[in-house]
Design brief:
There is one protein chain. By secondary structure, this protein is an all-alpha fold. It is built from three helices and no strands. It has a single domain, classed as Orthogonal Bundle (Non-ribosomal Peptide Synthetase Peptidyl Carrier Protein, Chain A). It is 52% helix and 0% strand.
C-alpha cells in the first residue's frame, strides 16, 4: 500500500473485499451506497470489513473512528486519511 493510491484505487480494493467476503453484488457498490441499508451489512460485517481494511492499510483502525461512516464513499475517505497519515 503506497501513498500514491488514488481514491479510485481504494474504492476498487474496497469493492473487491465487499464482493469476495460479503457477497455484495458488484452493481450495488457505489460511493453513495449505504453500508447497512443498501449493501445489507450488519455491525459484525462492519467489524470484519475494518479488519480487512487494517490488512490493506497496514494501520490499526479503531472501530470508533468508523462510527460516523454510512456510505462506501465514507469508507474510502477514512482509508485515504489513514494512508495520508503514513
Amino acid at each position: 500500500m503506497t501513498k500514491s493510491m488514488t481514491k479510485d484505487d481504494i474504492l476498487k480494493n474496497i469493492s473487491a473485499y465487499l464482493i469476495e467476503y460479503f457477497e455484495v453484488p458488484a452493481g450495488d457498490i457505489t460511493p453513495e451506497a449505504k453500508i447497512y441499508e443498501d449493501l445489507d451489512l450488519d455491525s459484525i460485517d462492519a467489524i470484519d470489513l475494518i479488519v480487512k481494511l487494517q490488512e490493506f492499510t497496514g494501520e490499526k483502525i479503531a472501530p470508533e473512528s468508523f462510527r460516523e461512516v454510512r456510505t462506501v464513499g465514507d469508507v474510502v475517505e477514512k482509508v485515504a486519511e489513514l494512508i495520508e497519515k503514513k
